Amino acid sequence: MNIEYFQTWFSPGINTSILLVILLTFFIVLMYQKIRRLSPTDRSTGVVMALELLVDFINKFAKEHFGGYWKFYAPILLTLGLYLTFANTMGLFGIRPPTSSINVTLGLSILAFFLIQGTGIVTKGGVGYIKGLFEPLPFMFPLNVIGELAVPISLGLRLFGNIFSGVIITGLVYAALGNFAPIITPVVHAIFDVFFGLIQVVVFILLVTIFSSNSLASEEQ
Predict the structure, then answer these.
(1) Distance CA 7, CA 146 (A)
(2) Largest distance between two CA atoms of the chain
(3) Which of 73, 74, 108 is CA-nearest to residue 88?
(4) Do the beta carbons of residue 189 and residue 91 sit within 8 Å?
(5) Domain boundaries, the chain
(6) Which residues contact 120 (CB under 8 A, 6 or more apart)?
(7) Is the pLDDT of residue 31 over 90?
């Protein structure tokens, strides 16, 4: 079996995404082992303190939007946030961001879609979930279904379009300036890889949170 066989299944974006997941997993396991060795009286410093602040922020954010279900959603939001942060900014290291591939962004949006729909089914029950598709009036059912199906498409295309456009513009700047590119490209990378990349992380997380929290059953239900 030669390498061409695998290339038919994995695009460069997926390959980079797999590599990023492996590196993030290794980093998280390393940090977990480091935190376990700390004494309760030890003062957190450096990366450990930054991670604690990040986890506290995500926990408060999840409690605010998901109430009693926050323990389930907080790790998901944190995982998505870490992945997207590094994926969107890989251009800083001369690596094409995996989120510039439509395969990766649609994959993420499909996962978000199942999370959103699963939230409604689990908290409302099957009957309550289906009933909600006929609200506020029965003839709205087709539009409600289309609206739910449009969620993963909009999430994936929005993320893909913003990151891919940054890759194209950065590549054009490199091609146009040639040997003078290092003078201008740091500014381009700061704009598209850092500023726009991090904005897309916030937008994706917020949209997933809003759609998921809206699918939660109300207190009366």
Answers:
(1) 34
(2) 65
(3) 108
(4) yes
(5) 3-215
(6) 129, 132, 215, 216, 217
(7) no
Instruction: Name the percent of the chain lying above pLDDT 70.
Output: 92
| Side-chain half-sphere exposure of 132, counting CA atoms within 13 A | 19
Tokens of 98: 């995996």
By residue count, the chain amounts to 221
Q: Is the peptide bond before 136 cis (omega within 30 degrees of 0)?
A: yes
For residue 138, CA distances in Å to 86, 121, 143, 214, 220 come to 44, 19, 10, 20, 21
* CA neighbor of 110 nearest in space, from 149, 78, 143, 165: 149
pLDDT of residue 217: 62
Give residues with Cβ within 8 angstroms of 105, minimum separation 6: 99, 155, 156, 157, 159, 160, 163
Quote the tokens at residue 157: 């295309």
pLDDT at 2: 45
- Region 119-147: mean pLDDT is 84
Banded pLDDT at 23 (limits 50, 70, 90): very high
Q: How far apart are CA 98 and CA 75, in angstroms?
A: 22
pTM exceeds 0.70: yes
